[in-house]
Amino acid sequence: MLSKPKSRKVAALIAFMGTILPVSGFHKFYLGQPLWGLMYLLLFWTPIPRIASAIEFVWYLGQNQDEFDRNFNGGALRVNSSVSTQPTAIDPAKVGEVADALRQLDKLRQEGLVSE
């Protein structure tokens, strides 16, 4: 299932809210970690989730966007608007070299020197 990439600032804001509100852990649900979110909710009566939320708030703000994407967006790459979407030029000489190498491999396969 495809979903929108998670925002570092939104995750940090939700984690910060977990330090001042009576319940914590909603940032874990937002980041797609429901088991951790459930643990935070089950421990709501202790200071552990609030302290962890405060630490994660600082951690999220301390990361740059690329690190956050690697950790929470499955390594999603950010799209840079200055990058051209034009395909790169194909070098005909390289195409010819690849075609020759494939022909040689096929010839070796037909001669029985290389197995499939």
TrEMBL record:
Its main location: membrane. It is found in: Membrane. InterPro entries: TM2. One of its GO terms (cellular component) is membrane. Residues 5-57 form the TM2 domain. It is a multi-pass membrane protein. The chain crosses the membrane at residues 35-61. Keywords: Membrane, Transmembrane, Transmembrane helix. This is TM2 domain-containing protein.
